[in-house]
Amino acid sequence: MTESGSSAEVPKPKKPAGFWLPVLKVAGIGIYVDMLVLGLVALLLLGEGASLGDRLVLIAIALGSVLLHELGHAAVARLQGLHVGGVFLHIVPFAYVERGKPEDELRTALAGPATNLLIAGALYALPAVRDGFPWLDVERWLQDPLWAAFGINMLMAVVNLLPALPVDGGRALRAALMLRMRRAKAYAITARVGTFTGAACFFIAVLVWPSTDAYAAIAAGLFFIMVAWREHQSGQLERRRERAKAKQG
Ligand SMILES: [Zn+2]
Questions:
Q1: DSSP H helix total and E strand total for the chain
Q2: 75 CA to middle of ligand 1, Å?
Q3: Predicted model pTM
Q4: Which of 100, 133, 161 is the last residue of a domain?
Q5: Which domain holds residue 218?
Q6: pLDDT tens, residue by residue, 123-171
Q7: How many C-beta neighbours within 10 Å does residue 4 have?
Q8: Could you report the per-residue pLDDT of 40-60, keeping only the tens digit for each?
Q9: Residues whose beta carbons lie less than 5 angstroms from ion ligand 1
């Protein structure tokens, strides 16, 4: 995801509030980790099941994929001359970049999922992935590091391209609409599409019900509907602002 600093008050975002542990710097872009993520990694390492080595490999693949996704956002933002405040690995990871014009936001939003698709495409060229990947058997993805890397990147691309805020697909949709219409209308349509996407997640959850993936779909659906409601309110606020401006002018 990308998080934009509001251009009115903070022209150049530095770092979001909270405690962030600096871990790495890639081409001048700082990478920070939240304590919650460190705790989660520790839990996964201490857990039972696969050997410690296998678990380390899987954690590295998952974190590496997330990191490359966020660096994709950051790199494209910077190419467009936007200031990048850093990459923040939280439970919901994000790259903190300066808010740009709608066309800049569109390209920056799409850069993350595009990075995952590029990685997945490169992995799919390998016979071990192309010939053996267990598409529908998600639990088996983790049996082979190459399958895990392919599966995680495909999943990240698909989930992030859903047309619902706060994922990249919702941001891209809003930016694309803002190129063609007033801000208030773009917000309203994004909210409607997000509500529909959230409801669709719910419907899918009912279909796959006894499976454990149903819980993830329910949580995602609820979250999308909640964020869509907030977007709807922002749209109404924006419409009042536009009307007041029209009266003045
Ligand atoms: Zn993203």
A1: 8, 5
A2: 12
A3: 0.89
A4: 161
A5: 163-249
A6: 999 999 999 899 888 888 888 999 999 999 999 999 999 999 999 999 9
A7: 21
A8: 888 888 877 778 888 899 899
A9: 1, 112, 168
